[in-house]
Amino acid sequence: MPIPADWPTTEAEALAEQERLRPLVRPYGDSPAADTGERPDEALVAGVDVAYDDERDLVVAAAVLLDRDTLAVVEEATAVGRIAFPYVPGLLAFRELPAVLDALAALTRTPGTVVCDGYGLAHPRRLGLASHLGVLTGLRTLGVAKTPFTFDHRAPDAARGSWTPLTDPATGEEVGRAVRTRPGVKPVFVSVGHRIGLPEAVDTTLGLARQYRLPETTRRADSLCRRALAALQERTPTN
Fold this sequence. Notes:
The chain is of the alpha+beta class.
């Protein structure tokens, strides 16, 4: 899929776009979704993730729709596009979002919540991938990351469901939570994306991570985008 014509191409443009979008983030629940023409299904939750082929300058995005109660896969979609932006820490959303938006658009049903493999408000400018995606789509979003990025936390207690604040060392602000999804296993780092509060984001993550450290949305989307990339590489080998 083509990169949008107005997509930022320089670091300065991307930073300006983050500053423009940041005030639009709603870090709490019960706010109305944008009028996208389709009513979200609150029984469905989507996971999104990407895989890169830097040699071909391609990114493959996956969107996997799960039943929120059973965690069964309801629908899957992928999208392939050119890498939309150079690698710059704090600006990764600009590399990934065009393909992610295409994958979500390929789903025939609209999820009530989207879980991103990354950050939301736990971002230097409070606009990680999950928040950026939420503002652009109007969907409820949250981020579940594997590492704390540049933020501080104490280790949660060993029991499943234990958590500690993830804080900005410069301001002391709570930007997320380190959450233990499996007893004695490394925590994940949950942050608000858009239209959800932090306690609800944590509860959602725990509900999706019943057997493994990572939520099932992330596991399924990661597997799908990797399989799609491998299939693409088999069809178009490099010389």
